[in-house]
Amino acid sequence: MQRHPSAATDAASAPVLDIDGARATIRLNRPRHLNRLQPDDLDTLLELFDRIESDPAIRVMVLTGTGRAFSSGYDLGSIAERAANAQEQSAGSAFEIVVNRLEDLAVPTICRINGGVYGGSTDLALACDFRIGVESCEMFMPAARLGLHYYKSGIQRYVSRLGADNARKLFLTAQKIGAAEMLRIGYLTAMVPAEALDEEVDQLASILAGNAPVAIRGMKRAINEFARGRLDEEAADRRHRDSMRSDEIREGMRAFAEKRPPKF
Questions:
Q1: Which of 19, 125, 176, 197 has an alpha carbon within 20 to 30 A of 188's alpha carbon?
Q2: Secondary structure (DSSP) of 79-134
Q3: Does the predicted model carry a pTM greater than 0.85?
Q4: 176 in Cβ contact with 118 (< 8 Å)
Q5: 10-residue mean pLDDT series, the chain (264 residues)
Q6: Rounded distance, CA 22 to CA 125, Å?
Q7: How far is it, in rounded angstroms, from Cα 235 to Cα 175?
């Protein structure tokens, strides 16, 4: 697997997938344009998400970027073209579909923020379960400067994960904030020096990959549903009851009694 995605020198391409054991890494790979997402990239991301979710050996996914930025977001030129010929709605919904699909990915996800996070990519990162960023990273949401009313699920994600006051500040002022402020408002899970980024991501990925995958999948789903105010109570109760009779809980209890790491 590519161990230092931010230092990669690959030619520009659609997002790249690397698999190393239980860990999958998706790398946005258009560094010359700060990993700006093109329309075709959205289809590629959906295909990669499906591939990851269909592989039972994959327990965790890392999303990152090539070069000095995580991503500058969705190509505004594509949005402008679609607005001119009445296709803007389909462009917006295509990006929204990708971000929502990422949020609902069954395996836990980590965004490895190797640099700037701009525009729609702020929501792409926010859809991940964890966000680890370098001390030099920054973010801003320019929708208000562009005259763009952001799509509703993106606003909901900002509000549910960062709170209404922080969502107001980021959306309505369109001001850039640095890593320390990103950490303070909860956008970043952790902030580290650039040289420590891989170690921090590796440590968290190892922890997530070592925990019970079925239990993680179910609890992640419940957390997302709670955040949206739409919990499927019957399904959550059923998953809880099933877990009490599962192979996972038997192995977890044995490992606890034997004072060893569980093997799920």
A1: 19
A2: HHHHHHTT-HHHHHHHHHHHHHHHHT-SS-EEEEE-SEEETHHHHHHHTSSEEEEE
A3: yes
A4: no
A5: 46 95 98 96 98 97 97 78 54 87 98 98 98 98 96 97 98 98 98 98 98 98 96 96 96 96 95
A6: 21
A7: 41
